[in-house]
Amino acid sequence: MMNRNSARGIVAHIMPGVLALVAVLLFSVPIVAEPNKDSYAQQQLEQLKTRLIDDGIDPIIVNQYFADSRFSIIPELLRVNIKQPSGTAGYQRFLGDASVRTAAGFLEINRETISGVLQDSPVTPEVVVAILNVESSLGSYKGTYPLMNVFTSLSLLETEPITDVAPEFWNVVLDGISATEEDAARAKATKRAKSKARWAYKELRTILRMAQDGHFDPLDVKSSWAGAYGLPQFIPTSAEAYGRDGNGDGFVDLNTLPDAVASIGHYLKIHGYREDNPKKRRKAVWHYNHSDEYVDCILSLTDKIREYNANNPTP
Predict the structure, then answer these.
(1) What are phi and psi of 163, to 5 degrees?
(2) Coil, strand, or helix at residue 234?
């Protein structure tokens, strides 16, 4: 058997180009490498791409957007969508004097556009503006995250182990949970994660289907951490089902006021909105957001906007 000194002598005379390779072969201590988590995540993405193509999405579209430099996985979204931020939504702030004045002024400035889009609709300009104010601060907030990145990330919530794509997942989700409740909390979070992943996949498939018409870039459109986007903060399946072209340019862009107004109006109309029927009025807004606090806010703000403009007519 060759001793270490003999081996070093041989290595010293080997041409420099292969010196490092021989040194590794002779002197490395075998170790078990940690699995490459980036590669594992990439495997999940490849499976996701195959699934999308099998479900009818154009392979060119799938490969184009997944290869785009703007595409990325956002691990923190996996955590926040399972353990959502605590605290109330704070709807009362939208009913303050400043908020009402701003919303009422926005309506007066844009009344011709809004009323024109809602012509022959049972939906009033005031309720549409109230929704725009609460959802996106009248368009000043449209989101932070590329829409495709949100739903691709959430589609990976079924990954096992989830920590391979979101290393801090369980640390965050189980934070503040007692040891005796940890197993139950983990089981509940796992169930929610799988359900959320299935929902997110449908939304991802929808935005890529929408991208096929060439008028929608899912990496350019920004959304909230929950995947709602545009002035009305629709999720993609709602945009596909209820989105309407309000300015006649041939496609729906929820980041434009006419299309946002047309889409909100259509959504409320489909769900039975009637200004003269309090029960139907309330039920239609509830469909928009299944929260009694939200409905109370929207309807109250609607009435306040109408009252403000009646008492402060434009000269």
Answers:
(1) -65, -15
(2) strand
Question: Residue 285 in 3-state DSSP?
Answer: helix
**Cβ–Cβ under 8 Å, residues 242 and 234:** yes
Q: What is this structure's pTM?
A: 0.83
- Nearest CA to 296 among 306, 286, 288, 305? 286
Residues 289-310 have pLDDT tens digits of 999 999 999 999 999 999 999 9
Alpha helix (H) residue ranges in the chain: 4-12, 19-27, 37-54, 59-66, 75-80, 97-109, 111-117, 125-136, 147-155, 169-173, 182-211, 236-242, 257-270, 278-288, 292-311
Count how many Cα atoms sit within 13 Å of the Cα of residue 129 in the half-sphere of its side chain.
Answer: 27
Amino acid at 73: I
pLDDT tens digits, one per residue of 197-248: 999 999 999 999 999 988 899 999 999 999 999 999 999 999 999 999 999 9
Spell 252-271 as b/e; 16+ CB within 10 A means b: bbbbbbbbbbbbbbbbbbee
